[in-house]
Amino acid sequence: MAETASEQGRAQAAVLPVAGRRNVLVTSALPYVNNVPHLGNLVGCVLSADAYARYCRLRGHNVLFVCGTDEYGTATEARALQEGCSPREICDRYHALHREVYRWFGISFDHFGRTSSPEQTVICQDIFQKLLENNWLSEKTIQQLYCGTCQRSLADRLVEGSCPVEGCGYGSARGDQCEKCGELLNSTELIDPKCKVCGSTPCVRDTDHLFLELPLLKEKLEEFIDGASVDGYWSQNAVHVTNAWLKGGLKPRCITRDLKWGVPVPHEKYKDKVFYVWFDAPIGYISITACYTPEWEKWWKNPENVELYQFMGKDNVPFHTVMFPSTLLGTGENWTLLKTISVTEYLNYESGKFSKTKGIGIFGNDAKDTNIPPEVWRYYLLTNRPEVSDAQFTWTDLQAKLNNELVNKLGNFVNRVLSFIAKPEGAGYGSIIPPATNAESYTQTRAISETVGKLIDQYIDAMDKVKLKQGLKIAMAICSEGNAYLQETQFWKLYKQDPPGCATVMKTSVGLVYLLACLLEPFMPSFSTEVLQQLNLCPEEHLSFCDEKGERDKAKRPWDLIPSGHRIGKPAPLFKGLDDNTVKGFKEKFAGSQAERRLRAEVATRLENTTI
């Protein structure tokens, strides 16, 4: 999928805040670079952020949407060791893979960067120096695991063991966090730890590190949280996690690590160490913006005129509501801080969990290989978005939503309306939009305009509050109302019996088709582009739903949305269904881990060659 013209336009001139407009800075949690993202990563971060950024643009707001690959830290070093190459080679390879996956999914970043940039080093070290000058840092001697076989200190992700949290006991907990219960850990707390490189049992050694004194910053942090969580829209899970951290008592957090791959610590005593990834990765939002424009401070040091919206999975919450704000507050500078945080629960795969580490689930490149179009994946993931509880991906559910909701409901409505208008005169309107005379005098037309008007208000309210799943559901409800309107009016009979009435129904219905193309654009942009092409309208000019232009009020009179006499394009089916045999094949193909799939494919190839 090539860049759209609007994306190319954004790439040519940097988007900067504009006085008097609503300026929205949207970030997606930076995906780690050591593997291809799976569907759970996509819906929790970049896809949700993209839907909201697109909605804001649709509404006429001034939007900057940034993201990039999180490249420093233990996981990259571990992957490089595993593959026998340098961390930079790992980052270059997977950054390109991430970029390709997001391009295929139609993610409309204004800039997709990476954290291993010179800008990251400069900004990260500058923030560190200000924290040091303001006395928010301390030095402590801590115990750290050391592998005698590898002869190296084991950073958090180079060690694995059983989770020490009571009631959990997960056997593959990392040295920084338990993937199962979400608890942040120190590697020395793990039960029966093992070096992930060689499998040996490490010993404990003393080492000096720098810490951010979160307890001393608590008053500033609580003042920020009390304001932002009221002024913005915080997901309930974000509120719960943040409050739990505050009630549990803030502790100093280590900001340095014994690694080589990372931002060097600009301190003589610690010059052989790098910053811990939780400290430097959120700063990546800032440095990625700095790579996009030298005027990055107009976004990041402009809280009076910029609203920061951040999207992520629930395991990233404390880094964004506690640690990152504390870091910025500690500098004493006027940073743009988080206003709204949208957090998803987990998306599970069939009967288990998605896992990048274990290679379980559907990954971005897998989705592309199915030949199921990106708009179908986007629709399914966003309609199944785990906003308040974990959700489950199943192939059967994907099939049902595609066949019942996209093919039979949405696609059928659009095609039914446009195909009838496209019929030659005597059977239709020769592809010309007919006039709607005294549209409000028709009871059913007046009724649907009132219903649609209320649904539009509900849609905007939901989307403004970042309730994306609800917004999508409301947009699809307009489609249902359109289908019911066609059935109730029996337009095919009106064509001969009441020509003005039929013309009104068709002009109203084609207005609803256009309206759906607008409201569904944040969720399925390629669908909207295709519908506008079939309407013979230019997407760059007509995909807009802006209050200042009166488009919200006009949409409540759907018969006025497309002028009489306008010639539509050629109608064509918009979606193709999935049959049971295809679904069965996908279930078998994507069962087990990536390693198991590769083994099955190799065995199948050998058998095929033997047979030949």
UniProtKB/TrEMBL annotation:
Residues 24-418 form the Methionyl/Leucyl tRNA synthetase domain. Residues 443-594 form the Methionyl-tRNA synthetase anticodon-binding domain. Its EC number is 6.1.1.10. PANTHER family: METHIONINE--TRNA LIGASE (PTHR45765:SF9). It comes from Urochloa decumbens. GO terms for biological process: post-embryonic development; reproductive structure development; translation. Belongs to the class-I aminoacyl-tRNA synthetase family. HAMAP family: Met_tRNA_synth_type1. Keywords: Aminoacyl-tRNA synthetase, ATP-binding, Cytoplasm, Ligase, Nucleotide-binding, Protein biosynthesis. This is methionine--tRNA ligase. GO terms for cellular component: cytoplasm. The lineage of its organism: Eukaryota, Viridiplantae, Streptophyta, Embryophyta, Tracheophyta. Gene3D superfamilies: HUPs, Isoleucyl-tRNA Synthetase, Domain 1, Methionyl-tRNA synthetase, Zn-domain. Its main location: cytoplasm. GO terms for molecular function: ATP binding; methionine-tRNA ligase activity. It holds the Pfam family tRNA-synt_1g. It catalyses: tRNA(Met) + L-methionine + ATP = L-methionyl-tRNA(Met) + AMP + diphosphate. It is found in: Cytoplasm. InterPro entries: aa-tRNA-synth_I_CS, Anticodon_Met, Met-tRNA_ligase_1, Met-tRNA_synth, Methionyl/Leucyl_tRNA_Synth, MetRS_core, MetRS_Zn, Rossmann-like_a/b/a_fold.
